[in-house]
Amino acid sequence: MKTVFVLEGILLTTVFYGCNRTEEGTSPTYKDLTEAVYASGSVFPRNEYKVLANADGILQQQLVSEGDSVKRNQLVFVLEGITQGAREQAAANIYRQSQANLNTNSPVLAELEAQLQTAQTRLANDSVNYVRYRDLYQQNATSKAELERVQLAYQTSRNDFAARRSSLQRTRNQLYVDLQNSRSQYIASGQDQGNTRIRSFVDGKVYEISKEPGEVVRRNDQLALIGSGREVFVQLAVDESDFGKIRVGQDVIVKADVYPDKVFKAIVRKIYPKLNRVDQSFRVDADFVGELPDAYYGLTVEANIVISQKNRVLTIPKSYVVGNDSVWVKENGEARKIRIEKGAENFDLVQVKGGLNEKSIVVNPE
């Protein structure tokens, strides 16, 4: 239900200059009229964020409680990784093995280098043998078949040497890549270990704890809700029918049940264009001006967003309006229905811009 509350001494004060009520009806009177849109909402902290787990594990330590103040980078939770230790040890073992495979005493490289040396020795022998047989053939001291056999052996040895040299270089390159990959995995496993130590991103206040020590925590589970402990704003829901009247910079009067004797002032900061189809309302955010309420998360408030202020305008009670723009008036002892031109209005009063004057007698339609 929409309500416009009246607050003495502030923007929504309505000054009455007299009421010409008679037994037969009432006459329009001049009054100060403040037009406002009612909105309900809640108070929330600035810089609000959900503290999420960055790894799977068991909540080992809860270092803060609801209501505590925290500093940026302060340790707030510690998780015990379920399999983290095993993964880190496996990554360390692979990294050490990769280092051993590439160092000067590497058994993998030593075997390939031995094979390369054997191939080099065989190539040298076959090369000498080929030169000797070539000279003998030129002297007609051996047959062409023998020369071709020795030449084939020399070419085979040369190809084998080239292939083993290429294999050694290729293996050395692959071992280097494996070393870099295993090093990255080892560093990443150490970072995962760091993910079990959850810290606050901001200076603020702990509003909610979602997990307790001993509970199993999955990656991206919410652990807590943290927000600014000093800076707060009011989030309002404005009815769809009134949304077109709202503008950034308009004054807002805010009341909260927990402060029955206080009125807070705010100003519209942001208007959201998406309709909430659940309650047919739009979201409007407002910043407090001057005194702030205490930083209670979700504190329920009611507000009036001031649309316009009219000084000494002709008004009638809103309850006398029939439909959208008609009233019953009494003329010459008879009642008849006429149309009026309306101006600003609030929950109680309607500005009359045309159709009535101070001498008109408006009849209550009830």
Structure in words:
With 366 residues, this protein is of the alpha+beta class. The chain has three domains: 160 residues, Elongation Factor Tu (Ef-tu), domain 3, CATH 2.40.30.170; 64 residues, RNA polymerase II/Efflux pump adaptor protein, barrel-sandwich hybrid domain (OB fold (Dihydrolipoamide Acetyltransferase, E2P), Beta Barrel); 111 residues. The protein contains three helices and 21 strands. The chain is elongated and about 155 Å long. It starts with 19 loop residues before the first strand and ends with a strand. 23% of the residues are buried.
The gist of it:
By secondary structure, the protein is α+β, with helices and mostly antiparallel strands. Helices cover 28% and strands 38% of the residues. The protein has three domains: 20-46 and 231-363, Efflux pump adaptor protein, beta barrel domain (Elongation Factor Tu (Ef-tu), domain 3, Beta Barrel), CATH 2.40.30.170; 49-80 and 196-227, OB fold (Dihydrolipoamide Acetyltransferase, E2P) (Beta Barrel), CATH 2.40.50.100; 84-194.
